[in-house]
DNA sequence: GAGTGGTCTAGACCACAGC
DNA sequence: CTGTGGTCTAGACCACTCA
């Protein structure tokens, strides 16, 4: 192993992962690990702090460090960037803004986003198309108070999501995934059967408490899936 | 602010989040930050290492640290534990094992999980019910080579997923979320209309390369959604 | 009070990438 | 070669918490 703290971390992780140290098991104190590995306290402290940050162990003064109870299960899903996906697959991608308007936010959306009813939002409906096949329908609200430059942005080169991601950093996000049956309008737009199951991804983002954007992206259920690969350890 | 490294980190994060330091902007060198905050190099190093681990900055020797390009979008979704959810909502939860058998894995599942065709798996079909209303139908395979004690486990108190989570630590997971139309059998089990949109969550987990379990959980689309709240910064 | 983790220092040497 | 980050040391003081 290249670095000492890596070796220590791998050792401890292996013992946790193998079940040798089950949840609740007390991990050796820092001074014990110092002696075991013949290193300074800073080094073992760094290891244990990292493990705690990753949720593998919990630390308490006086009581020491113990193997953490397995956390609530969570799924981490990649949200595909259509342009990048298309480039990788060698297919042609384009998007079309179907509707663009500036509107006061309605009561339901105000509730969801924590805005005051009537706040001016840029509303965009976008169709994402790959090789002439509609892949997703996106309805998006952009808070003009937080992102005023969106007002004059033509969204010619990049679709709204990509443009926003590059421009506005975010601090909080909320995701909701649902399944719905396509109604007539949606079915026509996505060229699918009325009633076909669709995957709906809603994503709301804030920047330091200020609402940035809400996107509702609808994918044909038979054509798309959200995929994630995840390791609990960094 | 309580701690020095917290103050430094908050300062830098604020400048990145506000856009004052856009993606690509070079962050002061460690020795510059040492001088600015009047602290040791270890302290600023810890701050910058943390920021790098969180993906806010990228660091390169000689070149210094720069604000990272916004990462691929990803959604983090909580997978609800039915029992905990029910306890919180004050409703009654029970589950019913509809089918239990030990079977050799078929070709498709072997492909998905990286197992050899014919490996013995414990196969379970479970219905999750809250207040007498079916909430989800779960089909699960458990690798008896990795979890031999599952063979004799009656799954009386905890459903298979909860039991496994408490017992077997995992190192890798793969998630797939899809939308499907319910067929007749599924519709009858979940007491929904045939054709209704359902959310399907597939989750496969491995422990140090060894396959542990695959679960396919189907939720009625109108009754359930996956929700996640996420901040990029730890 | 005693023992733990949390933080911080003022050095040091090394690896690596760019000039 | 130079300057950067990566790692590590051998101390130190403090805060918290349990006995």
TrEMBL record, chains A, B:
Give GO MF terms, alphabetically: DNA binding; DNA-binding transcription factor activity
- Domain HTH gntR-type, by residue range, is 2-70
For the keyword DNA-binding, the answer is yes
InterPro entries assigned to the protein according to its UniProt record, in alphabetical order: Bact_HTH_transcr_reg, Chorismate_lyase_/UTRA_dom_sf, His_ut_repres, Tscrpt_reg_HTH_GntR, UTRA, WH-like_DNA-bd_sf, WH_DNA-bd_sf
Q: Lineage of the source organism?
A: Bacteria, Pseudomonadati, Pseudomonadota, Alphaproteobacteria, Hyphomicrobiales
Q: Choose any GO biological process term that the UniProt entry carries and state it.
A: L-histidine metabolic process
Q: Which UniProt keywords apply?
A: DNA-binding, Transcription, Transcription regulation
User: One Pfam family of this protein, by short name?
Assistant: UTRA
Q: Extract the PANTHER family matched here.
A: MANNOSYL-D-GLYCERATE TRANSPORT/METABOLISM SYSTEM REPRESSOR MNGR-RELATED (PTHR44846), TRANSCRIPTIONAL REGULATOR PHNF-RELATED (PTHR44846:SF16)
- Which segment of the chain is annotated as a signal peptide? none
**What is the protein name given in its UniProt record?**
Histidine utilization repressor
Q: Respond yes or no to whether keyword Ribosomal protein is given for this record.
A: no
Q: Which superkingdom is the protein from?
A: Bacteria
